[in-house]
Amino acid sequence: MDVMLRDEIYDQAVKWVLEAGRIIREKMHDPLDIEIKSNANDLVTKLDKETEQFFVRKIKEKYSDHFILGEEGYGDELSSLDGTIWIIDPIDGTMNFVHQKRNFAISVGIYHDGVGEIGIIYDVMANIVYHAKKGDGAYKDDVRLPKLMKKTTINEAIIGMNHFWLCENSLVDERHMQHFVKQIRGTRTYGSAALEFAYTAEGIIDGYISMRLSPWDVAAGIVLVNEVGGRTTDIDGNELHLLKKSAILTSNSDYHQHILENLQKGRK
Ligand code: IPD
Ligand code: CA
Ligand code: CA
């Protein structure tokens, strides 16, 4: 992608993300019209929909040749990653949004011919933007995030994950997962995949594993984690396909292989 064009798209995308965040903060105490999607714990609100519509309107007006893949379905139906694609989760962590009114993010990843060029994750209530351009490093607001520190022993790792890994329907035998959890220093569950990617890029957790994520949960985060020398794959070690759901591992690359091998040993 042409660098000047990319920089312009990036500046524009950051502005829209900040504006969308401001609107969410303004409207979040109005009735949210909460609806249930695939199951009782899968929620969507009026503001998830309105925020995605906001991006679709802005992008189609300014970049009519770009495509949009958005969680709420207001974007395009895509069967290939050709061209420039905005992969958008208007509110990642809707359950946190509804119950806590914090710990949710806007996530925007911009890919060109399948390559992650721009990643923006906005923690709306903390007013912190994590952002990255491919090859230009990752930032938390104005501060450049350092390359992830060299790690040697897994016993010091803190891994983001949720309880699904320890349940009967886990993709990895639950006793094996319990054994894995005992080996590491600790686990954390933040309830927003995008923020968990951002925290991995920041190095405040050493990785994040999730059983079933969609492209909009991971698109921006992958760019951020790449920029600090981390790695993201599915739990079988394959590159992610951004039009499909996957079980994912993103982590400090020193831990990546070790965790993958560990998960493989208990793989169902
Ligand atoms: C969800 C959050 C959550 C993760 C789920 C996602 P949503 O996204 O990222 O942390 O565990 O798998 O679906 O529905 O709040 O956008
Ligand atoms: Ca999400
Ligand atoms: Ca969402």
Sum this structure up briefly:
By secondary structure, the chain is of the alpha+beta class. It has helices at 3-27, 46-62, 94-99, 174-183, 193-202, 215-227, 253-265; strands at residues 35-36, 43-44, 67-70, 84-92, 105-112, 115-123, 128-133, 138-140, 143-144, 158-160, 186-188, 207-213, 230-234, 246-252. The protein folds into two domains: 3-144, 2-Layer Sandwich (Fructose-1,6-Bisphosphatase, Chain A, domain 1), CATH 3.30.540; 154-265, D-Maltodextrin-Binding Protein, domain 2.
Could you please describe the fold and organization of this structure?
The termini are far apart. This protein has helices spanning 3-27, 46-62, 94-99, 174-183, 193-202, 215-227, 253-265; strands at residues 35-36, 43-44, 67-70, 84-92, 105-112, 115-123, 128-133, 138-140, 143-144, 158-160, 186-188, 207-213, 230-234, 246-252. The mean pLDDT is 96. It is α+β, with helices and mostly antiparallel strands and 268 residues long. The strands form three sheets. A seven-stranded mixed sheet has the order 3-4-5-6-7-8-9, with helices on both faces. The protein has a five-stranded mixed sheet with strand order 11-10-12-14-13, sandwiched between helices. A two-stranded antiparallel sheet has the order 1-2.
